[in-house]
Task: structure prediction
Amino acid sequence: MTIMNSLSPRSLSAPESGIVEVVNYARGREGVIPLWVGEGDLATPDFISRAAAEALVAGETFYTWQRGIPPLREALARYYQRRFQKALSPDNFYVTGSGMQAIKLAIEAVTSPGDEMVLLTPAWPNFAAAAEISGARPVSVPLRFEHGKWQLDMNRLEAAVGEKTRALFINTPSNPTGWTATPDDLRAILALARKHGLWIIADEIYALYYYAGTRAPSFLDIMDDDDRILFVNSFSKNWSMTGWRVGWIVAPAAMGQVLENLIQYSTSGVAQFMQRGAVAALDQGDAFVDENIAKAARSRDLLCDALIATNRVETLKPDGALYAFLKIDGVTDSRQAAIDIVDRTGVGLAPGTAFGEGGSLFMRACFLRDPAQVAEAAERLRRHILSR
Ligand SMILES: Cc1ncc(COP(=O)(O)O)c(C=O)c1O
Result:
């Protein structure tokens, strides 16, 4: 028996990320403008790093609360009151080792092996992969793409729900399409979940990156206290903390011990000094977040306007999230196109093949960068597209 045949089928079935594959191809290349992964160009602001560093130096290096230190869970409650006008108790919050871990634990909490989880595609590939690793089967429901706009087809979503469905995974605003559920969409999805007794796993990590108002519509606006909704979230995008690996779950307080156990038997909690940084992010970070959002809005306009003006790209400015998701005329293999584009133009894009059903002819570009750099990337892409 070889090493590989002796591994579990579940671990072997985990796919390589199609985004990382292209990043690895050109990693470290001089002059590349990296629009391929979902992160900005700023390091974590000082006031956040300093709070963590001071706690570290002060000796906050011991085991701590599995579900998160009380000051962080209290700061999260204040943040939801401020930004979502939602009164939640600190007991509704569970601190996790990244948004990704929040997703993994939420899926583990509500699905058993053999169950199905329905998700809308194109989607960030980690949702489906996390389900598979947990033994659940992801079932894709492609959004409709019409006249450059992505739309939910509720009939398709309802048709995908079967005997084995346990959860609907809803990411709004969406990575990579920017599709953002309207209040009517949210109401229809919630009604479907209630009708079939399903959980909703709501990934609203980009809720503040919304360009048609102060924040995107949220399930928080319409849910009742006893609805079965788990919100997964992260410090990564709002506060430029992608490398920290800290996130959180919002869940009914009744699940407290279950989530605490799932945290205990995976990471046993997030380092206390990092949680002090997270408290600073929440309590002192509103101005930084607002600047990040304003920068994303400017860069979104620059990139999308330049690409749309070529008349060779099908896309609309996304309502939310951090990505332009574009279909370039004549591209039939987006993985190869991402490689050609980084070779010829030095702009790093993620191939749509990485995002599941419905996305294979598209490319994703993250625009959370200095607008001057995004304008340079847009110009390089424009020249490349027009020369084809
Ligand atoms: C929609 C969505 N959810 C969750 C995450 C995970 O974030 P984290 O960096 O905290 O793992 C990402 C990261 O790109 C994302 O795009």
Remarks:
- The pocket of pyridoxal-5'-phosphate is lined by residues 38, 98-100, 124, 171, 175, 203, 205, 234, 236, 242, 247 (CB under 6 Å).
- DSSP finds 13 helices and 15 strands in the chain.
- The two ends are 50 Å apart (CA to CA).
- The chain has two domains: 4-44+287-381, 46-285.
